[in-house]
Every structure is written in C-alpha cells, then in structure tokens.
Amino acid sequence: MERLSTTTFIPDTFLGARDDFSMQMGVLWSKIRAPLIVPLLRITIVLCLIMSVMLFIERLYMAIVIVLIKLFGRKPDKRYNWEPIKDDVELGNSAYPMVLVQIPMYNEREVYQLSIGAACGLSWPSDRIIIQVLDDSTDSTVKDMVELECQRWASKGINIKYEIRDNRNGYKAGALKEGMKRSYVKHCDYVAIFDADFQPESDFLCRTIPFLVHNPEIALVQTRWKFVNSNECLMTRMQEMSLDYHFTVEQEVGSSTHAFFGFNGTAGVWRIAAINEAGGWKDRTTVEDMDLAVRASLKGWKFVYLGSIKVKNELPSTFKAYRYQQHRWSCGPANLFRKMVMEIIRNKKVSLWKKIHVIYSFFFVRKIIAHINAFVFYCIVLPATVLVPEVVVPKWGGIYIPSIITLLNAVGTPRSLHLLVFWILFENVMSLHRTKATIIGLLEASRVNEWIVTEKLGDALKTLTVAAKLPRKPRIRIGERLHLLELAVGCYLFFCGTYDFAFGKNYVYLFLYIQAMAFYIIGFGYVGTFVPNS
C-alpha cells in the first residue's frame, strides 16, 4: 500500500502555522539567549554556589563539633549539677516541686488515649503533679471521648484537669496560653508539654526535672523523639533520616556550644518563670515553640538537650499530612526571622557571638538558605545549564559539595545508609514545598499563618485496611491525588533530560530522568500510606 502523507490528515495551513510558530520561538530564543539568559544564569549559579559553600561550612562545623563532643565532651549531667530528687522524711512529698503536664490536642480520635495514659503513668508524687488536657476538638464525639478518658483516670486518683475553650484563637499557642491562666497553675514550678501522640516513659520527670531544680539558669530541658512507625513506609524512613540528623547533630551542637536550640514544641520541660519572663506563648507565627525559645534565650536563659531520653511518637505517614507539616515548619521560622531579626540585633543581654549564631547559623542558613538552595540549584538552575551549554557549573559545586553534605546528613541514621539515593530524590521534591513556604513566610503572603494539625493514625490504619477489603463501590478522587506543582517540575526536568540526552555530553540526563521520575511519583500521589476512604 502506498504510504500516506502527513498532509492527508493535517491541513497545510496547520503545518505552516506550526512551522511558523517554531521558527518564531527559535528566533526569540536566539535573540534573548546571549544578552539575557546567559548572564542571568551565570549570576544565579554564583549565588547558588555561595549558598552551597555556606551550607557546606555549616555542616562541616557541626560535624567537627559533634565529633569533639563524642570524644572529649562531658555529658549534660556532668556539665550541669544533677542529682536525683530524694525522699525527705520531714518534708515528705513537698521535697518534689509541683509539675504541670500539658497535653494540647485537636480531634485526636486515634491517639488521645496514648498521651493521656502515658502522662498519668509518670512516676511523681500524685499530690505534686497536675495533668492538664487542653482539648480544642471541634468534633463533639471526640470531645466526649477525651472527657470520659480524663474522668476514668480521675476516678483512679490522678489529678487530671479537662480544659476546653469556646474558640481556637491562636491554635496550639492559644490553648497553652489559656491553660497557663488557670488558678491551680500558680502553684506549679515547671511545665512538661506533650503532643497527643507522644508517650513519655514513666521516669521522664525523674530524669529531667533535676536539671531545672539544681541549675537556676536553665529554662528548658528538651528530649529526643523516638519514632514508633518509622518502618511503616518509605516516606517515614525518609523523615526518620532527616529528623535523626536534627536531633543527633543540630540539637546536640546547639546545646553543647551555645546552650541554645529551637524548642521542638513537645517532649520538653520548661521553667514556668522563664516562660513568663520571655512574655509567654505568642501566636504571631506557626512556630510558637521556636518563638518562645528565641525570646527566652534573649533573656539570658540556657537550654539543655538530653539525647539519651527518648519519647515515643508518630511520624505523619500520609503525604497530605506531611506536606501540611512541612509547610508549617518552613513558613513559620522564615516568618519569625522576619519579625525578630532586629530584636535580636538590638538585644543587650546576650553576646555578639550568640547573636551571630542565632541570626546566621540557626535562622539564615538552616531555615532559609537550606530550603531555597536545594530547590533552586538542583531542580531549576542545574537542569537549565543543559539548555545553555556555555554556562558551566564547576564539579566541586555540582557534585563534590552536595555529596559531602549528603553523607554528613546520613550520620544520624546509619541503618538507612542504603536508602541515601531515595532520600536525596525525596528531599529535592520536598524542597519545592519548603521553598514556597519559606518565601511565603519571608513576604508574609497568604497562608503565612495557616495551621493544619498533623494527622495521626495510631492503630487506626490496621482497622481501615481490614475494612477496605470489604466489597464496596470504588470512589476515585483525582483532585486529591494529583499535585500539579510536582508534575510541572517533573515535566521541566524530563524536557531538560531529553535535551541533554540528544545534544549533551556530560550524562546529566541520568540524574534529570531519575529526579523527574521522583517528581512524577509524588505528583501522582504514589507516596506514603494510603488511608482507605470510609
């Protein structure tokens, strides 16, 4: 059979228009490439290389410090006065300070019993501890369940208070602030805070409170998180790698060198006098914990981190929950930096060295540069150099420095070393959301104060999975599964990879195709745990 020509199905006018459009785009590209694109790309590369060097120096500095701490450093109970609180025959239980335990929660149907049960099981004289459940739930069924749980423990002789509000103003910060206004709190010296999915061991207070009792300069004792569901899926393993580095290195270095680090919002004990002196809880950002920590530090208070004490908790296992959490954790610090940078500079109580540490290291490099550089350099600029071959990224900036930084990050979780490549790809995808959130925080744009509570599944996933096996009419919600930003970046990377495959010589397309695939997988929603619709 005679081969059919293209014109049989495609009109000549269309072909002409298509060729004309391609020619016009080619002419436009050739005109703007040399005078505009090339200089702009070179400037961007220089800026990205500078940010990479800043990150490299920061990571290297922390690596050196953590090695010195492990080899020669003294443990917290040696650096500070520490001895267990002993029973006194004459004083009785009054030898123990009054401790308030706050548990803020919001519609925590699946996990509320875990934290309440763990808090009520803390080893401390029953007349020297008050458990305060701050329930902001909007689901009346959940509120009734939480209240009944509190009544159940109260019937066993536990001093537990169930507190509610008629609004959610200030979200978590507002709940904590409202809880501190109760009359019985005036008798308390310290406050331990646990989110609804946190389960402290029974000896938690016995190991942390002595640091505050015997060292009047210490305001905060922060402990480490232990993830009970890190093996649930690949996404939770990736989170474990990032957070283990945070606790193993960042918190440890901050505690040992400057007696300062960011409060993690839970699994910590505060001196109530320090909270009051710092101005109490504020809801001006989505990181009320970091806000309080910075203000207390500027008043001269010291913090101590205890990596040996681990509190069990749950990682977000659905991508939706993780995205919202990362938005809050990236937007909040950037917005707090904007609000507090001048206050830190003008402060008279702390040394110049500590100011530099807080502004440059703690905020600028870790909370802003780290997010922006990861996305702009590796997902935008580096692929763009494929299209403009006269602009070259030096190997030390494009390969060596990122490789060293990645290896240094991996020290926190040695068991996941074989997942390092997956972690790099996943972190590059998440840098898209973190960069967007960071810019929103710096500019105070829309969603700057968006607070969506991180969903916890507890043991509910097992029940839902069993229920999902029952026959029912399938429901497909495409809008909930598709993430257009990820898909758009994936298409950009795939295009750059294809161009490099066709015309390039440096095999960059290998990285671009793999990274594009990671964006596609997450863009189509195939990451994390799937929760069957009820």
Automatic annotation (TrEMBL):
Membrane topology classification: Multi-pass membrane protein
Assigned keywords, A-Z: Cell wall biogenesis/degradation, Glycosyltransferase, Golgi apparatus, Membrane, Transferase, Transmembrane, Transmembrane helix
Enzyme class of the recorded protein, top EC level: transferase
Domain of life, per lineage: Eukaryota
Coiled-coil region list: none
A Pfam entry, by short name: Glyco_trans_2_3
Catalytically driven reaction(s): GDP-mannose + (glucomannan)n = GDP + (glucomannan)n+1
Residues in Glycosyltransferase 2-like domain copies: 190-385
Enzyme Commission (EC) number: 2.4.1.32
Localization annotation: Golgi apparatus membrane
CDD domains recorded: CESA_CaSu_A2
UniProt keyword Cell wall biogenesis/degradation, yes or no: yes
BP-aspect Gene Ontology terms: cell wall organization
Keyword Nucleotide-binding: no
Transmembrane portions of the chain: 43-69, 368-388, 400-426, 482-502, 508-531
GO MF entry, a single one: mannan synthase activity
GO cellular component term, pick one: Golgi membrane
Similarity comment: family membership: Belongs to the glycosyltransferase 2 family. Plant cellulose synthase-like A subfamily.
Annotated protein name in UniProt: glucomannan 4-beta-mannosyltransferase
